[in-house]
Each structure stands twice: as structure tokens, then as C-alpha cells.
From TrEMBL:
This is Uncharacterized protein. InterPro entries: Ubi_acti_E1_SCCH (IPR042063), Ubiquitin-activating_enz (IPR035985). SUPFAM superfamilies: Activating enzymes of the ubiquitin-like proteins. It comes from the Eukaryota. GO terms for molecular function: ubiquitin-like modifier activating enzyme activity.
Length: 61
């Protein structure tokens, strides 16, 4: 009986996955919950304040 060596997936040897299926799993694990979380009122207010400040900085440039 020949024992087969277990090999690490190629994507674990690189900084980014190379297999399409591994890319999908990686992306899902990275962004899981981000699009499912409902923003709070403070999140929306902070976003708008940052947007207004950014636009003001662009106009001054």
C-alpha cells in the first residue's frame, strides 16, 4: 500500500488564491457580514460628514 502525501493547496502557498473556487471562498470569507450588516444612524452620519469634508478639500485644491 502506497501512502499518498498530503499537499497544501496552491493558494495557501501564495498571497492570493489561484483557483477560481478558492478565490470565491476567499472573497466570501473576507467580506462575510459586511453587506449583511445594517448600518447604524451614526455610520450614515459619519459617512456623510466624511463625504462633505472630502468635497470641501477637493474644492480648495
Amino acid at each position: 500500500m502506497v501512502r499518498q502525501e498530503k499537499r497544501a493547496p496552491m493558494c495557501s502557498l501564495h498571497s492570493v488564491p489561484h483557483n477560481v473556487d478558492h478565490c470565491l471562498v476567499c472573497a466570501r470569507s473576507e467580506f462575510e457580514g459586511l453587506l449583511e450588516k445594517k448600518p447604524t444612524e451614526d455610520d450614515v452620519t459619519n459617512y456623510h460628514m466624511d463625504l462633505i469634508a472630502g468635497l470641501a478639500n477637493m474644492r480648495q485644491s
